[in-house]
Amino acid sequence: MATSSTNIESSNEVSIARIRRRQSAKRAYKDTDSLRPSSDPEVLESTADRHIHAPEVLESTTDRLIHAMADHQHIDTIQDTLFEGSDATPDREVIPIAKGIAVVIHHTDDLRASVHLRQPVVRVSMIDAKSGQHVKKTRPDLCAVSYYERQNETVDYILPIQTQPFCPGKSGSVLQPVWEESLVINEDSSKLYEENTVFFFEILALPTACSNWADSRQAQSWYKIAWSFLRPTRSSLVGRKCRLQLYSYPNQQAEVYPVWTNHKMTAYSSTLYITVKVITLEDQPQPTLRSMAPHQKEEGTVPFEQLTNQSHAIGITSSTSVAAGPLQHTSAWTRAAGQSCQVPNRLDKVLHPGTQGCSALAFSPDGRFLACAGVSGESYPVTIWEVSSWTLVLSSDDHRGLVYNFSWSSQSSLVASASADSVCRVWSLERSAPPLTLPHPCFVYGVQFAASAAIVCTAGYDACLRVWRLREESVDLMAELREHRGLVNCLASDGGRSTLYSCDSVGGMCIWTIRENAQLQRKVKVTEGESILQITLHSAGKKALIRTVNQLVMFDLRIEKVVHCYTSSSVHTCSLISPCGTLVFSGTKDGCLYAWRTDISEAQRVRVTCLQKMASISSMAFHPVEHVIVVSAVASHQPVAVLVYENSMNNTVTFCPVSNTPHLLCSSWDNHVRLYDVASNVLRVDYTHSYAVLDCTFSDPSHSFSGSVDGVLKGYDFSARAETILGTHEEGIRCVQYCQELGLVVTGSWDKTVKLWDPRQKHSVGTYDQNGESVYTMSLCGDRLVVGTSNRKILVWDLKNMQFAEQRRASSLKYQTRSIQCFPNKQGFVLSSIEGRVAVEYLDTDPETQKKKYAFKCHRLKEGGVEHIYPVNAVSFHSSHGTFATGGSDGFVNIWDPFNKKRLCQFHRYPSDIASLGFNIDGTMIAIAVSNLGEQMAAKVHVKWGKSKFEVELNLDDKPTALKSTLFKLSGVPPDRQTLMIGGIKIGDEEWGKARDKLKPNTTLMMMGSAETLPEAPIQQVKFVEDMSENEKAAGLGLPTGLDNLGNTCYINATLQCLRAVPELREVLKDYPNSERGIQISQILATRLKHLYGSMDAGAAGIIVKATLSMFIEILHEAVPHFGERDEKTGSFRQQDAHECWSAVVSNLAESLVNRGTVTPVGQSTSFIDRYFSLQLQTKYKCEDSASEPETQEVEKSYQLSCFISQDVKYLHTGLLKGLEGTVEKHCPALGKDARYSKKSSVSRLPAYLTIQFVRFFVGKAGDSEEVVPKKILKDVKFPMKLDVYEMCSTSLQEKLLPMRQKFKQVEDQKLIQKAKEITEGATLGLRQQHVAETKVEYEPFSFPDDPGSSNSGFYELLAVLTHQGRSSSSGHYLGWVRRKNGDWIKLDDDVVSAVPEEEVLKLSGGGDWHTAYILLYGPRKLEKLKECSVDSPSSMDI
Question: What is the DSSP string of 348-411?
Fold first, then answer.
């Protein structure tokens, strides 16, 4: 453009302000954090790329700003730096133009594939056609483009303005960029209609990606792609959507205006869609964080000093608020030291740290505090909560980006956060001061305190581990450690915090010793190139839970191998190990929380059902000393869920002894005692013990007593809501009773004693030994006490005289006593055992009375001929009828008549064990406590076989054959030869029979039978097809090797499999040098593709192929950065367009596969890709508006033909011809304005391998909304197995093709003659055919002698098909279909390879949601060389 250098420099300065004003960052213009990335760290979105990869447009002024940031110099505002020395007043009133101009940039058609095409922008300039200068403003003080341009008085013209960079993957492909952005110009709309006003539109791309942030500042300039122009002098163009022809730049140094004035314009094969319209601007818009109009002021909130922790020096108050007063620890944790953690089963409460959810959570080591990283629109608040009361103790808005991770110091006094705003901050809970700031040049993903609270380690996007020393008001950078090959995603430390583990994006782990200095212990390869997203150390320090993109595994750090794999139905998004080390938790993308046990051999998944399904879980944390887990997600109005463990096992239920008071008292394992009003179904009182409560009882309606596992006896006054501790036992209190006659509390304990307590004196009045046995159950019978102990003993005491036991008797039941209840008439008692029996006994020792006692079986179920026996856990008497109820572990409650010895009724089956029963005083209600008591049916028994003895686990629920199978493994005696006996009873195969009653724990069985010689294992292990991996199946069946899907990489796999079908490409790659030291990415890409194809050709192991594929994908992501984008929620790679991938691979290979030493004719390329894949299109343009304008002709190179699909296109041939003709609008020199041209193209060179793309994807509106979404054309378009493109060729090329096409015709004729001879000559011809079949087939060359890699016939055969299943190019699934040499077809679905018939391939033409052909690869149709032969002389055969 013919403008002065001064104007150009000013233009760049102010237009960059416009870019920043329009970008979607979350910081003010004054906020220097806007120079850092503000999006997801895994994906360099538009804002991040704009600042990291394109700093050169800032030129000298912005460079001063960046250097000021690096040196931590004071900067008041960005506008003062950009316009230093100006006398303009920033805050004077700005008056807008009543009618302004808006330029809407919509999208383009397909752009040419290029390695330089990344995140394109459109720059718009208003130029005076006569002078070549920018159009002058109506008033010099007018803000035409930027609010701050008026501070520079030399800017008296309309500055260029440009869009945001297009970010691929959101609304389209980089080859079809969609901006849909309005660029507002605060200038009088009359400028549109001036004769000399010309709009120039330049499509520019960000420069080539640099290796790091520092190198990116040295990039030279924008890469120029194409340009166009518009002269809106005709009023009909204003307000209408226009389609502008694009033109190519002669070179990268060319300016648009000279090219336009000289009319040396070369058409670019694409168009740009724009709209220019007149708009009305608001008079006085309010200031905002990001202005939407040139005259709207921008106001930031955070100055640069706060980032460097100098707030105290400049008088700025920190945005951090800390609750006043000292923080006291008042909680009593319910999880004892060494106790296993439990899976939470109840949602206790929710927290709201942000309006859009929470991204990170962490409990302090002492469990007192919880740190939350909220997300609230443009702010990212950090909040810290006191756990016992869930009160907020700290709130801060210092971060300007998403917080990824927290780390607490060992004393719980400091907490550090890692964030996407390139800063790590450290807060102190002991003093009210601004947080310390640890600045970084990139995203910070991980932070971890070392053994000393003064040392912090951080890591992030630049693959560097940094060690910092914290001081009172400053920080020192101690070391920068660069041992990782990929970005460092996570950090973890051991219990002593002297060993640090860091994991990166290429599957590597570094283990460090962090003390006063940092030292690398060793490196560990965890995965084959798969990114490690999270690591959590096991409490023992020998294992680590590692979460990658696709899996969750337990990794043994000693042997460096995976020992467990935890699978779920959805992608793992976060994970943790419980503090006890026995549980693994995982949150998934579908919002579910799962748990596994780590201390069993088979990991079984359990879903945590108390968590209602939420958005994709982003973070969770387990309390270090409580059964509490907190879970969060990043989504609108998504709170943090606090889940707690509540033991639902009720131990005792008892009614109030007063009839007019319907109160029920319950004790349970969750440490609570609850008083319920049964009449109104209301919880009246809830008080707690420190540990589980085993029993409770009423003394009167206002008082209760309860005993817990820790041996504490507690009294509670319901009226006063006051509790009293009466005393303790040495061990847990199992039973609590109240004697109404004597006014005493009676307790029985596992410490083998019974104690009596006077509630008025609040201490024990006597302790009595129970024959040295633990008390399991007891019941009061007036002033007599019946006690059941551990060794099946029954002791009867007189509470008035506790000097000795009144009676000592053995239980009439053979197994452990579970419950005792006395008759209401005080004459006897009922006891139950664990063996499904109940006994009725009497206290009177008279022999005649003792004859009345009896026992009976109950709570036994027969299922499939097998009787299952359950413990009888509870017994309760009806006060008036004398009947009693029993409850067992079978879930049933039975009512019995003890006098008539029969069962009266049975309640319905409850879902779990019956733990306790209780009738009310008048017998009108019964309370039933249902709990999971975990009764087990299995027991260990001994089996004697000759001189050998085995200990095995016996489960009577199984058939005897299960036991015999176990014994066969131990002894070698086949089950049909085994004879098992116990007590003279033979055990059969199907039923235990009478042996069931004798099979008790530790009993001994006899086995007879001789072992046979076991067959020796084969030397070579036999492997069946169903046990083979997909690669082993492919090798066995002669199929090609598949490629693993490494996370939405099916589009890459399909592309590589189709290109591998070209044998010449594989051969040229074999000879390519192995060095990766070349400066070009394309050279490294070719080298890694060589290794990948080599490992596939050699039939290498799947892990090797996967490793080489991972390395190729890694370099492909460098060549095309947006291919490396990751989903913000799942962390996995995003799906991309396979056509874009195909174009990127081909264009990179075109640059690298060049034979630089070869001498070729003038005009021919030395690139292999150009020779074998490129075609030339000869296009003629004819102006339809001017007959005097001569016809022009242009020649361009392309790597494909496009099949445009419309309503009338049913066949591939029709779509190809349709794409060669059309109309475009471009500048007409004869008319001096834009005019319509007819365009007709023909092919002037054909490659050996022809690529054809079905143009199925486009961008359109979603229904009636204005939202632009990608769409797909599903129309059925038939394609042939053999293709002839002769009709599409130019006349000159058709003449060159004729000789070889005539040879094809001769061969076809010869085949007809041979077929006729086969009928007439019979055997003689058969001998000739046999001879021909045994002769090696030779083919005619398929290229012209002077043009290797071309097609000399125009005949093609279908070689490969790339298909897509789905409705969008950025979603769905891609497959490859390749033809083999024998004509069979192979379907390549990632690592699943299978043979398919040709008919299946022809069904890929579309018409539904099945796999639809997207790219066709046709290869040369080869012609066999004919040889004359006969029976007598093989060299003679008539043609």
Answer: EEEE-S-TT-EEEEEE-TTSSEEEEEE-BTTB--EEEEETTTTEEEEEE----S-EEEEEE-TT
Confidence of residue 540 (pLDDT cuts 50, 70, 90): confident
- Report how far apart, in Å, the C-alpha atoms of 541 and of each of 336, 455, 492, 501, 624 are: 21, 21, 11, 11, 16
User: Cβ contacts of residue 164 below 8 Å, gap of 6+?
Assistant: 19, 22, 23, 24, 46, 50, 121, 179, 181
- Cα gap 175→112, rounded to integer Å: 7
At 982, is the pLDDT very low, low, confident or very high (cuts 50, 70, 90)?
A: confident
As a whole number of angstroms, the distance between CA 1308 and CA 1321 comes to: 20
Show Cβ contacts of residue 992 under 8 Å, excluding neighbours closer than 6 positions.
866, 956, 960, 999
Token pair belonging to 118: 């990344």
Question: Tokens 């299952």, residue?
Answer: 868
Residues 1348/1014, Cβ–Cβ less than 8 Å: no
Q: Confirm if 623 and 368 have CB atoms less than 8 A apart.
A: no
Decide which of 86 and 1123 is more confident: 1123
Report the alpha-carbon distance of residue 679 to residue 676 in Å, rounded.
Answer: 9
- Reduce the secondary structure of 429-468 to three states and give it as a string: CCCCCCCEEEECCCCEEEEEECCCCCEEEEEECCCCEEEE
- 711 φ, ψ (degrees, to nearest 5): 85, 10
pLDDT tens profile 1247-1276:
999 999 998 888 777 666 667 777 788 888
pLDDT tens figures, 144-165: 887 777 666 678 888 899 888 8
Structure-token pair, residue 292? 């939407």
Tell me the two tokens of residue 132: 């070549």
**How much is the average pLDDT of 889-905?**
90
Q: Is 1225 exposed, middle or buried (0-12, 13-18, 19+ CB in 10 A)?
A: middle
For 1186-1209, write each residue's pLDDT tens digit: 877 888 888 888 899 989 888 888
Strands 543-548 and 938-945: unpaired
Distance in angstroms (rounded) separating the CA atoms of residues 928 and 926? 7
For residues 489-507, average pLDDT? 88
Question: Catalytic residue at 372?
Answer: no
E strands in 701-827:
703-708, 712-717, 722-728, 733-739, 744-749, 753-758, 763-769, 775-781, 784-789, 793-798, 807-810, 817-822
Residue found by looking up tokens 């593709």 in the block: 1089
β-sheet bridge partners, residue 1227: 1234
Environment class of residue 114 by beta-carbon count within 10 Å: exposed (0-12), middle (13-18) or buried (19+)?
middle
pLDDT band for position 1416 (cuts 50, 70, 90):
very high
Alpha helices in 1185-1290 (DSSP H): 1212-1219
- Residue 568: phi and psi, rounded to 5, are -140, 170
What predicted TM-score, i.e. pTM, was given to this entire model? 0.39
Cβ pair 1056, 1029 in contact under 8 A = no
pLDDT for 707 equals 93
- Averaged pLDDT for residues 461-487: 89
Both tokens assigned to 54:
């394109």
Q: Which residues pair with 839 in a beta bridge?
A: 831, 855
Edge-to-edge strand order for the sheet containing 663-668? 650-655, 663-668, 672-677, 682-688
Structure tokens at 200: 């120039």
Res 381: pLDDT: 93
1227 flagged as catalytic = no
CA atoms within 13 A on the CB side of 699: 20
| Residue whose tokens read 């008082």 | 703
- Look at residue 948 and give its three-state secondary structure: strand
1391: three-class secondary structure by DSSP? coil
b (16+ CB within 10 A) / e for 328-343: eeeeebbbeeeeebbb
Marked catalytic residue, from 457, 696, 781, 1050? 1050
